From TrEMBL:
Family matches, as Pfam families: Pyr_redox_2
Residue ranges annotated for the FAD/NAD(P)-binding domain, each copy included: 4-178
Cofactor list: FAD
EC number: 1.18.1.2
InterPro entries found in the cross-reference section: FAD/NAD-binding_dom, Ferredox_Rdtase
Molecular functions per Gene Ontology: ferredoxin-NADP+ reductase activity
Protein name as it appears in the record: ferredoxin--NADP(+) reductase
Top EC class, one word: oxidoreductase
Keyword NADP included in the entry's annotation: yes
Record's catalysed reaction(s): 2 reduced [2Fe-2S]-[ferredoxin] + NADP(+) + H(+) = 2 oxidized [2Fe-2S]-[ferredoxin] + NADPH
Keywords: FAD, Flavoprotein, NADP, Oxidoreductase
């Protein structure tokens, strides 16, 4: 019986967990090709998790284990629709899994959202995590006060990074270009704006207590 060939588009956590599940199947020989538009894998584990949260990023050890399987192949710098088309993938593989995730921000649709100094979290987080699409971004962090709209995990990560001691950030894997901007500590105060009075977040209650007022 010939191997069952599967293509996975996207190399974030969902893509790697899908690959691991396929490679563990009993009674069937599965080969997995993973296609990623960036040169490096791991998706938001690499470019979305705050640099001062190394324990969360340690999940990448499981991805490395999957990548060592001889039936697994990774292809970076491949943009589906440009370098290869979905119809070609459907013809070449027995199955195609799209695990591309959410790559864009959610507009607030409020006046002034497009003014200078207004930055989406996906851009700022990508910038301080060395995402290649945001390395040339140049946020102005010299005005003393920053406002973060929202109080979810990413919002609090952004707020914490903005007011963190640069000396502490040096021991993390934060991007060098971001550390150079954050080093003068231009942001002295962060205001967090939430839509509801009550703190509603999918995280431990003490996290809300540390930030909400």
């Amino acid at each position: 019986m010939r191997p069952y060939h599967v293509a996975i588009i996207g190399s974030g956590p969902s893509g790697y967990f899908a690959a691991a599940s396929l490679l563990k199947l009993d009674g069937i020989d599965v080969h997995v090709d993973m296609l990623e538009m960036l040169p490096t894998p791991w998706g938001l584990v690499r470019s979305g998790v705050a640099p001062d949260h190394p324990k969360i990023k340690s999940i990448s050890a499981q991805f490395e284990k999957t990548a060592r399987d001889p039936r697994f192949r990774f292809f970076g710098n491949i943009v589906v629709g440009e370098h290869v088309h979905p119809a070609e993938l459907a013809e070449r593989y027995d199955a195609v899994i799209y695990a591309v995730g959410a790559q864009s921000d959610k507009p607030l649709r409020i006046p002034g959202e497009d003014l200078p100094g207004s930055v989406a979290a996906v851009e700022l987080v990508g910038w301080y995590n060395a995402h290649p699409h945001y390395q040339t971004m140049a946020p102005d962090l010299s005005r003393g006060r920053a406002i973060v709209v929202g109080n979810g995990n990413v919002a609090l990560d952004v707020a914490r990074i903005l007011i963190s001691d640069p000396d502490e950030l040096r021991s993390t894997d934060i991007a060098d270009h971001a550390l150079e901007v954050l080093d003068p500590r231009g942001v002295e105060e962060v205001l967090i704006i939430v839509a509801a009075v009550r703190c509603r977040r999918p995280s431990p209650p003490w996290s809300c207590g540390n930030w909400a007022t």
